[in-house]
């Protein structure tokens, strides 16, 4: 089998220009099935563009994107839940669009997914009655409902307070350990990246390139305050600072 | 590319005193938005009825005072107008006219929706159609229905078809443009979310676009109804259709120089407009907005 088919997603020499500006330059990135990769970078490094390429929402100007099969699920910073549906119905719609034809089956599966994100009671609740953290958990359950092997997350917890973030991290890692989807998690929070990822990829800015990457072999459960997490986070912070300072000399 | 390996040198000190489930449940309780206080059914009914009732009483009192003052000698009093309405109803002309007007309004509105809604969707989705039709539809919206009546009469004669032509020409452009603006206001994020879940083409229209735009679509329907109703009254007033409607009674009042009959017809036309608004569109709109927490 060729390596292209064994990766959950693979970018090969991907370049993206917008109106003559080079945003992404020759990016090679391969995410293995079940791998948890965090993408870090200063603003303007093209993180979101990269994610759009992986999601198939946009095409590279040159180079290739290949997904292991199926449409990747995407989660946004804003929950993007449909306000006209209850939490349960939001998930059921994703199941339906993913091909679950039987209504009773969709309902059972939606309840199970809500249980997975610790929201077993939220099935009939409307989005506006849920807190920010609850909304993101429903959004996570909806993304999981697509049954995709690859989950793309665009700063999904950036707008949440520290404690809520901590809960969401535990929920996400719990799910990842059980179901092992490939995850690409974009964040600007270095500790979050180290706390979650099996690999942390640092992008450089203007144009976005892969500057460096770290393998994080710390066992789960981790916490953001673990000395090992802090140690690696500090090392990465140093590199990120360097990356940003480089632009002051341009 | 340099890769740094960091072994598992530290044991992770995870606090065991509290389970994450408790933390999560506690945050859910603390962070969930408070449900708005819902007033009792009686209270809501009272406030909903009081304001319009007060408005009606105010108008009636002012009107009665104006006629009683003797300053407006030709103005009929509210009671005279009510007598006129009762007389018309007894005479057997009012109710058939009312039924005919409402029937025309309903079927004209239905036809306008059947034409205007798909037209709006087409203008929204197809760039070329928008370029050509959007300015034309906006321009048409500003055309008074009275200007359309002679056109319709020349084309179709003094017939039902002429009346319906005026209603459709009056309602469709505003309805279609309302639909376009309702779709334009759907947040990009929701459309993107739908797309990543596999809702494309007609699936996107059905599962994302239409439900997301629903509050705006109701506004568009209401606007279409209002324009259609006004156009219908204009058409009934100006054309001598074989079957008279409420507009015809208004015209009869004018011919007879009967102030009471004219006022009675105007009050009737106004009442129908208000009742449809308050009895059909507003409850639907409120329900939709409440379900979304708006």
TrEMBL record, chain A:
Keywords: ATP-binding, Nucleotide-binding, Transport. CDD domains: ABC_NrtD_SsuB_transporters. The keyword Disulfide bond does not apply. It comes from the Bacteria. GO terms for molecular function: ATP binding. InterPro entries: AAA+_ATPase (IPR003593), ABC_transporter-like_ATP-bd (IPR003439), ABC_transporter-like_CS (IPR017871), ABC_transporter_ATP-bind (IPR050166), P-loop_NTPase (IPR027417). Signal peptide: none annotated. Residues 9-232 form the ABC transporter domain. SUPFAM superfamilies: P-loop containing nucleoside triphosphate hydrolases (SSF52540). The keyword rRNA processing does not apply. PROSITE patterns: ABC_TRANSPORTER_1, ABC_TRANSPORTER_2. Gene3D superfamilies: P-loop containing nucleotide triphosphate hydrolases. This is ABC transporter ATP-binding protein. The lineage of its organism: Bacteria, Bacillati, Actinomycetota, Actinomycetes, Kitasatosporales.
From TrEMBL, chain B:
SUPFAM superfamilies: MetI-like. It is a multi-pass membrane protein. It comes from the Bacteria. Residues 98-280 form the ABC transmembrane type-1 domain. Pfam families: BPD_transp_1. The keyword Transport applies. It is found in: Cell membrane. Keywords: Cell membrane, Membrane, Transmembrane, Transmembrane helix, Transport. Its main location: membrane. The chain crosses the membrane at residues 49-72, 105-124, 136-156, 162-183, 204-225, 259-281. InterPro entries: MetI-like, MetI-like_sf. Residues 1-20 are annotated as: Disordered. PANTHER family: ALKANE SULFONATE ABC TRANSPORTER-RELATED, MEMBRANE SUBUNIT (PTHR30151), TRANSPORT SYSTEM INTEGRAL MEMBRANE PROTEIN (PTHR30151:SF40). Belongs to the binding-protein-dependent transport system permease family. This is ABC transporter permease. The lineage of its organism: Bacteria, Bacillati, Actinomycetota, Actinomycetes, Kitasatosporales.
């Amino acid at each position: 089998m060729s390596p292209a088919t064994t990766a959950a997603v693979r970018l090969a020499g991907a370049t993206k220009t917008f109106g003559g500006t080079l945003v992404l330059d020759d990016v090679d990135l391969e995410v293995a099935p079940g791998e948890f990769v965090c993408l870090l970078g200063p603003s303007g490094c093209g993180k979101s563009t990269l994610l759009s390429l992986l999601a198939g929402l946009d095409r590279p100007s040159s180079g290739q994107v290949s997904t292991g099969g199926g449409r990747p699920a995407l989660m946004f910073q804003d929950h993007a839940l449909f306000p006209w549906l209850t939490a349960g119905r939001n998930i059921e719609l994703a199941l339906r669009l993913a091909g679950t034809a039987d209504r009773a089956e969709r309902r059972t599966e939606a309840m199970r997914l809500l249980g997975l994100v610790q929201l077993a009671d939220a099935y009939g609740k409307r989005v506006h009655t849920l807190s920010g953290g609850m909304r993101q958990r429903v959004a996570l359950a909806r993304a999981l409902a697509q049954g995709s092997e690859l989950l793309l997350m665009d700063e999904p917890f950036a707008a949440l307070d520290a404690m809520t973030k901590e809960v969401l991290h535990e929920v996400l890692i719990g799910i990842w350990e059980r179901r092992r989807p490939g995850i690409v998690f974009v964040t600007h929070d270095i500790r979050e990246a180290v706390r979650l990822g099996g690999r942390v990829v640092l992008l450089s800015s203007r144009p976005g390139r892969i500057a460096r990457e770290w393998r994080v072999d710390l066992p789960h459960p981790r916490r953001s305050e673990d000395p090992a997490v802090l140690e690696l986070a500090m090392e990465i912070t140093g590199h990120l600072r360097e990356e940003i300072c480089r632009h002051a000399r341009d | 590319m340099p890769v740094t390996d960091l072994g598992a040198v530290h044991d992770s000190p995870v606090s065991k005193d509290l389970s994450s489930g408790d933390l999560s449940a506690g945050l859910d309780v603390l962070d969930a938005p408070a449900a708005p206080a819902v007033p009792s059914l009686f209270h809501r009914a009272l406030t909903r009825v009081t304001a319009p009732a007060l408005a009606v009483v105010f108008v009636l009192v002012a009107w009665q005072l104006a006629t009683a003052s003797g300053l407006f000698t030709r103005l009929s009093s509210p009671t005279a107008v009510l007598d006129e309405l009762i007389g018309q109803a007894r005479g057997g002309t009012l109710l058939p006219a009312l039924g005919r007007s409402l029937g025309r309004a309903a079927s004209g509105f239905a036809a306008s929706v059947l034409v205007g809604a798909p037209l709006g969707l087409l203008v929204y989705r197809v760039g070329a159609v928008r370029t050509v039709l959007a300015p034309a539809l906006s321009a048409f919206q500003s055309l008074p229905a009275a200007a359309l009546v002679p056109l319709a009469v020349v084309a179709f004669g003094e017939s039902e078809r002429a009346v319906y032509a005026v209603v459709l020409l009056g309602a469709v452009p505003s309805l279609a443009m309302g639909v376009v603006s309702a779709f334009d206001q759907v947040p990009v994020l929701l459309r993107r979310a739908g797309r990543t879940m596999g809702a494309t083409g007609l699936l996107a229209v059905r599962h994302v676009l239409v439900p997301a735009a629903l509050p705006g679509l109701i506004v568009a329907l209401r606007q279409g109804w209002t324009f259609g109703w006004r156009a219908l009254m204009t058409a009934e007033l100006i054309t001598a259709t074989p079957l008279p409607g409420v507009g015809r009674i208004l015209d009869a009042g004018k011919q007879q120089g009967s102030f009471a009959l004219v006022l009675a017809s105007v009050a009737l036309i106004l009442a129908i407009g208000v009742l449809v608004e308050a009895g059909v569109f507003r409850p639907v709109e409120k329900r939709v907005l409440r379900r979304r927490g708006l």
